[in-house]
Design goal:
Largest sheet: 4 strands, antiparallel
Order of helices and strands: HEEEEHEEHH
Number of helices: 4
Distance between the termini: 31 Å
Number of strands: 6
Helix content: 10-25%
Radius of gyration: 17 Å
Strand order of the largest sheet: 2-1-6-5
Structural class: alpha+beta
Length: 114
């Protein structure tokens, strides 16, 4: 699925999203969260109800009650760090994992310590 298709698909409960707030062209707030019915995204600049996020396309600007603009988007591969990926994969001691890639080997290093 390409980036344009990802933006067109409506956000559903249970999805991981990222909320970003920029202040003077600088990233002031960024949070990865799971969209849950009845929950709220909380920030120093106000809250956004998850119920208001679900059913909208990703990539939308949503405003808190204080009118602070937050970009709500789906995470890209660059947004995941090794610890987040290991947590999502539920890798633990004794598991067998096949890891390959042409990168720096950082994931192998993290896996060796899991």
């Amino acid at each position: 699925m390409d980036e344009e298709d990802s933006r067109k698909r409506l956000v559903e409960f249970g999805e991981l999203l990222i909320a970003e707030f920029r202040k003077k062209n600088s990233l002031a707030f960024q949070k990865m969260f799971k969209v849950q019915e009845g929950a709220r995204l909380q920030s120093p600049w106000g809250n956004i109800n998850h119920d208001d996020i679900a059913g909208r396309p990703s990539g939308q600007i949503m405003r808190t009650k204080y009118k602070a603009p937050f970009l709500i988007r789906r995470p890209s591969l660059e947004d995941y760090d090794a610890s987040m990926m290991l947590t999502m994969m539920d890798v633990s001691e004794g598991d067998s994992v096949l890891e390959s890639g042409s990168g720096s080997g950082a994931m192998s290093l993290f896996l060796s310590r899991a």
